[in-house]
Design goal:
Strand order of the largest sheet: 2-1-5-8-9-4-3
Helix content: under 10%
Order of helices and strands: EEEEHEHEEEEHEEEEEEEEEEEE
CATH superfamily of the largest domain: Electron Transport, Fmn-binding Protein, Chain A
CATH class of the largest domain: Mainly Beta
Largest sheet: 7 strands, antiparallel
Number of strands: 21
Number of domains: 5
Distance between the termini: 58 Å
Radius of gyration: 25 Å
Number of helices: 3
CATH architecture of the largest domain: Roll
Shape: globular
Length: 379
């Protein structure tokens, strides 16, 4: 039986908070689901060995903080690979109390305050049925899926997670060394820069507190110089050999698989050298192109519902411009601007900002690939 099939089930990522004699405790779980709407009931799955498990039993209440793709991965490591029995997992992170329950408040999608209805035995875990007594949004953040956690953050499942599958860490999955000595923790992935053998015997991982026997030396591998690939859909440049990525690797910008990546012919290809094609259309057809990312919609986009969004960059349909039959859309190698105007282009995805970007606030982000404004170059 191939247990990896279970990894195709869908999950999220959440911190569960409660109290122990007035002291805040918590852990990470990946299984929270709604059972009914009226009354609002949810169920969570939690390992019986978790310190938080018995604390919830005693307290009778708990909070659920819905983690987002913007959540600091350090929160996941702290809540997933340490025990609240000996550690204050909330230390160093922003939190608040809602109805006297601890809730994370930085870069999360929302929270739930719950009252326990029942505990159901499920082998190594308990299914905790609870009534939602309060809830709220915390900003507009996209909830993190377990798939995102594994593929983008490169996170591992804690041993107490219901989805944990014991397996050896493959060499190709280990961090790569670049001319220096380093070790990584085989439990949480923390990287120690330097020679860990010189640390005292009681040294522990600062994230998950495992002893140094869990640290594996990162073997140095030869790196092919100046190899890069670019995505033929959005122009994103992957620096390195993309063939070493797993088969399910996707472009972090537009989400297409790695079959869309083309090796750059030159030994050194600057990101701004990747040609960006403007949409073209045949005289016989009607089409529209997105003025943000260049995606071409074949057909009459006005017939789409008002909430239609570009499948590539997710802007609404007001950004789509009809391609006129007599209009010859030119191919450009780099964003260009008139001498009389000022413009900047993003060195990651090629998006052109018309105007003086220095006047934007410091937290301005590219609307296409979301990098900060330090990536914009004046033309």
């Amino acid at each position: 039986m191939d247990m990896k099939v279970l990894q195709n089930l869908s999950y999220g990522l959440y911190t569960i908070g409660t109290l122990k004699y007035g002291r805040k405790v918590g852990c990470v779980v990946n299984t929270v689901f709604q059972v009914s709407a009226d009354p609002a009931l949810i169920c969570i799955s939690m390992n019986k060995d978790n310190f938080t498990h018995d604390c919830i039993k005693e307290e009778g209440r708990f909070s659920v903080s819905i983690l987002s793709e913007d959540t600091d991965p350090a929160i996941i490591r702290a809540f997933g690979f340490q025990s609240s029995e000996k550690n204050d997992k909330y230390d160093g992170f922003k939190y608040d109390y809602v109805d006297k329950m601890p809730v994370m408040v930085q870069d999360i999608s929302g929270y739930l305050i719950c009252e326990v209805v029942s505990f159901t035995d499920a082998a190594t875990h308990s299914l905790i049925l609870a009534k939602v007594t309060n809830s709220g949004f915390v900003g507009k953040h996209k909830p993190m899926t377990y798939d995102y956690y594994h593929k983008v953050i490169k996170g591992k499942a804690p041993k107490n997670a219901p989805t944990y599958v014991e397996e050896e860490v493959k060499k190709e999955e280990a961090p790569k060394a670049e001319g220096k000595v380093s070790y990584y923790c085989d439990v949480c992935g923390y990287v120690y820069e330097g020679d860990i053998t010189k640390e005292p015997d009681d040294y522990k991982c600062p994230l998950c507190h495992m002893d140094k026997s869990h640290f594996v030396k990162v073997e140095e591998e030869p790196v092919e110089e100046n190899v890069s690939y670019y995505c033929d859909v959005c122009g994103y440049v992957y620096e390195g050999d993309i063939t070493k990525e797993p088969d399910d690797y996707v472009c972090p910008l537009c989400g297409v698989d790695k079959s869309h990546f083309i090796k750059s012919e030159e030994k050194s290809v600057a990101k701004e050298e990747v040609k960006k094609e403007e949409p073209k259309t045949e005289d016989a057809g009607v089409s529209y192109y997105c003025d943000v990312c260049g995606y071409v919609y074949e057909g009459d986009i006005t017939k789409e519902p008002d909430d239609y969004v570009c499948p590539l960059c997710a802007v609404d349909k007001s950004h789509f411009i009809k391609v006129e039959k007599e209009e010859a859309v030119k191919e450009e190698e780099e964003p260009k601007t008139e001498d009389a105007g000022v413009s900047y282009y993003c060195d990651v995805c090629g998006y052109v900002y018309e105007g003086d970007i220095t006047k934007e606030p410091d937290d301005y982000e590219c609307p296409l690939c979301h990098v900060d404004k330090s990536h914009f170059i004046k033309q």
